[in-house]
Amino acid sequence: MKHIFHPTDLGHGSTTAFLIALRLAATTKGALTIMHVDGTGEGEWSDLPGVRKTLCKWGMLKDEHDLEEFEQIGMRVHKKMMKGKRPVSSCLDHLKEDHSDLIVLATNQGSGNNWGKRKVAEPLARGAGEPTLFVPENAKGLVDADTGKVNLRSILIPVMVDPSPQRAIDMAVSTAKALSDGRVRFTFLHVGGEYKAPVVTVPEHPNWTVEHMLRLGDPVETIVNVAEATSADLVVMATKGHDGFLDMLRGSKTERVLRAVRCPVMAVPV
């Protein structure tokens, strides 16, 4: 994850997403772009979340004003304050010029993030076609705001033959490597009749365990129930986006899962 893109509406709900984006960038020594689109033109540069202040709070910096010490961490930070009334279009225009490996953003469950009464999170992810980590406003955070300590112990990955889950698994593995410092359980869930296991690769790790589940029932409802039962800290799903008329009306399975679970959801396009 060399480049993480974090669009923010500067609301309270965006704080949890910012903490995850910052922790990922700091751990992987990558680049973090923080972008706010302001329709009023009254936004201040100081309104953007404080990177060095947060790192100092976490004990990763001794002095938030020491730029040389910050540079030694190895991460790069770009902040952009854009004026405009169409946040989705502004973010997509930016991503066309500056590709990201992961988008991290907050979302309101039930309707998608709403900047200026417009849905933002889901349309942005669909338009970008890049892996996106959705962080529901009321979800349990992966990163402690005061200490920077990470809580990532259980990852749920729904799997099927089509779409192939391998890229989603790779992203889950990369996230675990970047964030987790202890034991992680990967749960592979197949919802359907006969379990037709896709061919996937999971690297061996002394602190990682893998569990396979087969369940019957409605896929979305089952994924949400298993996420609750396994105390999932993160759900990672391969997605093909809207590939049918009903999906256009109701949203893709990934989007419907996102609106119901109590933890962050990573959607990985295939």
Provide a compact summary of the structure:
This protein has helices spanning 14-28, 51-57, 67-73, 87-97, 121-128, 166-179, 219-229, 245-250, 253-258, and strands spanning 3-7, 31-38, 76-83, 102-107, 114-115, 118-119, 132-136, 154-158, 184-191, 208-215, 234-239, 265-269. With 270 residues, it is of the alpha/beta class.
Quick one: CATH class of the largest domain? Alpha Beta
What is the H level of CATH, i.e. the homologous superfamily of the largest domain?
Answer: HUPs
Parts with pLDDT < 50 across at least 5 consecutive residues: 111-118, 244-250
Strand order of the largest sheet: 3-2-1-4-7-12-11-8-9-10
Distance between the termini: 17 Å
Structural classification: alpha/beta
CATH architecture of the largest domain: 3-Layer(aba) Sandwich
Number of alpha- plus pi-helical segments: 9
| Radius of gyration from CA coordinates | 18 Å
Number of domains: 2
CATH topology of the largest domain: Rossmann fold
Q: Beta fraction of the residues?
A: 25-35%
What are the secondary-structure elements, in order, as H or E?
EHEHHEHEEEHEEHEEHEHHE
Detailed description of the structure:
With about 270 residues, the chain is α/β, with parallel strands linked by helices. It has 9 helices and 12 strands. The strands form 2 sheets. It has a 10-stranded mixed beta sheet, with helices on both faces. Strands 5-6 form a two-stranded antiparallel sheet. The radius of gyration is 18 Å and the shape is globular. The relative contact order is 0.14. About 5% of the residues have low confidence.
